[in-house]
Periplasmic Murein Peptide-Binding Protein MppA
Amino acid sequence: MKLQNQEWKTYIDSRNTGNFDVIRASWVGDYNEPSTFLSLLTSTHSGNISRFNDPAYDKILAQAAVENSAKARNDDYNAAEKIIMVKAPIAPIYQYTNGRLIKPWLKGYPITNPEDVAYSRTMYIVKH
């Protein structure tokens, strides 16, 4: 395999037409729930860059979307992840991290925020 550096427009064209064997892509979860990532691999999702198409996977994700029980939904997500592990349409190679130094007297920092956005309205300073 030969790596090929491309200008942005060429890269987007290659990605949109499927003219690649392997391509780099990324996604940032926009809500704190597994479907933010798992839905990307459904056959009709516009973000399905790999063009992965598995009717069983699509069915599991559709079922998860209508589950009322968190346990049943998580069971569906686990089944979907097993399909991804076997068929390997993507190969996650790294995850972004942001290091921060936060003084102990700053409280309300959104540690569980999946978008890694800090909202000042939730922060406050305690006496120190």
Residues 70-87 form the longest helix (18 residues). The domain at 8-87 is CATH 3.10.105.10 (Dipeptide-binding Protein; domain 3).
